[in-house]
Amino acid sequence: MGSFRPNSSWVGLFLFASVGCLALLIQMPCSEAVLQCAANERYVSKVFKGVWQLSQCDLSCPNEIQTQCQNDNNRVVSKMRCNWWDPRTGDTRDEYATCEGCCGKSLPTPPPPVTKECQAGEVSKTFTLPASRPWNCGLCEDKCKAECGSTEELREMCVLNYVGEPGDNTYTCRCCCKAPPPPPSCQCCQTNVDIQISIKSGQASCSTG
Edge to edge, what strands does the sheet with 42-49 contain? Predict the structure, then answer.
């Protein structure tokens, strides 16, 4: 019986592809992860590629997510996130923004427009952080999660303000946190209690009003 001898060219091609894939994985920002939606929600996204699209997280992402949700049976936008990333290829044309959203419940009529501002029932928090290459909007993600604390983070938008000079570039982090529930009301604390004591025939009685 003849023994099997692998074709050296195929082996070389396989090794080349494996090394290439590993290099791409290493270059991907480790903090980038897909936005988590609830079980009954639909995940939607769009990628804006090229350093000239720096403003898309502010200008286009909210409308893009709302359009995709509205086209799916008038669903409301329950969550939204937009971050700018640097794949570390050295080419600014490869830098990109990932715009993501979660489409929630359906409404009988189109939902109100979504803008870059927080919606009713949300708490707005905005921060400015220093930015440097490789771009990593995971810093905004971490800041928003920390600021929202125990309340749910509904929106996180990272806008890269690119000036060009090292040390002058910044991230504008826009966070929208779910408003905490109001404190429980105490009816008894708001009741005025008047105690009247009268002496009759040597007995004391109390009345409340």
Answer: 42-49, 96-106, 75-85, 153-161, 170-178, 122-130
* Mean pLDDT, rounded, for 52-79: 92
The set of residues, in sequence order, having a beta carbon less than 8 Å from that of 86 and lying 6+ positions away, is 29, 95, 133, 134, 135, 136
Query: Rounded to two decimals, what is the model's pTM?
Result: 0.71
Between the CA of residue 51 and those of 85, 107, 170, what are the distances in Å? 10, 37, 14
Give the per-residue SS3 of 142-160: HHHHHHHCCCCEEEEEEEE
Which CA distances in Å does 35 have to 12, 82, 86, 102? 37, 10, 18, 8
Q: Please count the other Cβ atoms lying within 10 Å of the Cβ belonging to residue 128.
A: 11
Domain limits of the chain? 30-178
How far apart are the C-alpha atoms of 164 and 155, rounded to whole Å? Answer: 28
Tokens, residue 203: 């007995």
Cα separation, 131 vs 139, in Å, equals 9
Structure tokens at 56: 């898309």
